[in-house]
Amino acid sequence: MLTVVAGLAAASIALTGCLFTFIPDGGEGTSQPTSSASPDAEGVAPELLPYYTQTVDWSPCTGSDECAKVEAPLDWNDPGGRAISLSIIRHAATGSSQGSLLVNPGGPGASGVELIRDSLDYAVGDELSKHYDVIGFDPRGVGGSTAVKCFDAKQMDAFLFDIPSAPRGTAAWRTEVLDSAKSFAQACEKNSDGILPYITTEFAARDMDLLRAVLGDKKLNYLGYSYGTFLGATYANLYPEKVGKFVLDGALDPSTSSIDVSVTQAVGFESALRAYMASCLKTRGCPFAGSVDDAMADLGALLAKVDRSPLRNNDGRMLGADAMVTSIVAALYSQDSWQYLTQSLAGIAKGDPGIAFQLADFYFNRVDGKYQDNSQEAFTAYNCMDYPDDTTDAQIAAAQKTLKEKAPTIAPYWSVDIDGCESWPAEATGVREQIHAAGAGPILVIGTTNDPATPYAWAQSLAKQLDSGILITRVGEGHTGFNKGNSCVDDAVNDYFVDGTVPDGDIRCEG
């Protein structure tokens, strides 16, 4: 659920994360630190042995969970240089353990430690937590690991919510937006202690192999959501012989360019918005009437009105069209949130942006004026390093045409011609290409037919690219497919992880 969406124009890529987290209370543990199993350093280069043979000292952190820090090389191409710290959490199997299961919630920039600490049942469910030691980790640059640091809360509020003074689309507006992105990039460079060039998905995947080894596992078992599918696919491509049981849910197509990611997501959110609107029109309290087309046109008019005349919240923030789009996007991740979108849009129509800001704050993990993590900073850092700046004018023109035709409601606020990484202090090193992971064992790829954040076509593409990919289709709405109440999907995943049962072929699971 991360990110500066493209409508905010401060980031060039609208790729979002995957999981809404629910934060239960947890008591503090009282047991003494424990050590991990013997590290697996087989076949490791001599210069990496100090990392691969380190002992993990676990200490109690929340409830029965244990936490630890693991050292990794900042630069995997120069392992003799500076080290960084990776934060991890372990929820021990409640039954007989089959080993470790690493889980990544997406982003890029989401905290795996927070996911397991606060939302274990939502992330993996009872079956997997019974049979595996579930491991959450903060990738490099994220959360409790050596982290990207940019703005304080006041500066982040201005970055995310301040409205340019110039009219949208003008040269002056464009200058304001790019200046804002430049200020953000400069703050990241100043405050991140030289780590920005090394915040890449490739290096994060290499960190995962290090975690596999120090946890004592011969192979890596992995459940990755949303961006976590790209991280997992990258690992499988680098270490195919180390792939254990892999499930990639809410897939990102690794061969897709930044502009194609942005356009495809916009079309996905427009489609999800139409599905929401069809439902809204059948419920009491819906602020729209008529056909879906009528309602979408009225929503477009409401967005334009807010763009012209922003609404003041009780905390002084102004709701412009960009923040309104963020609130809409936040609610489209799950059908369970549609009711809040109805309340939000009804409020906006009456001049009250309160619920819209609640949705936007939830999206950005902002509580009582404070940001609970560095997900926005890490999100930008990864994307600016992973996506090369090779977009042509012809691609921009084609993208704008597609947006107007297939996402007309969102298109005015989805700025594909703004490069938020233009001022980033490190040059991108990522390559957008297909991933085959030749030699890896079976990899399950899950796609949901009307997933707005990671559209279904990406899951189809990734499953086809992978030499051992198997596609599980969930017919329905919302982002990701596992543990969403579809027994067909859940049984396939649980049977695979627990019993090693591999589907005979692709599976289609009706809602």
UniProtKB/TrEMBL annotation:
Protein name: Alpha/beta hydrolase
Domain of life: Bacteria
Coiled coil: none
Keyword list, A-Z: Hydrolase, Signal
Any one GO molecular-function label of the UniProt entry: hydrolase activity
Domain spans labelled Peptidase S33 tripeptidyl aminopeptidase-like C-terminal: 408-509
InterPro entries: AB_hydrolase_fold, Pept_S33_TAP-like_C, Serine_prot/Carboxylest_S33
Organism: Microbacterium protaetiae
Iron as UniProt keyword: no
Gene3D superfamilies in UniProt: alpha/beta hydrolase
Family that this chain belongs to: Belongs to the peptidase S33 family.
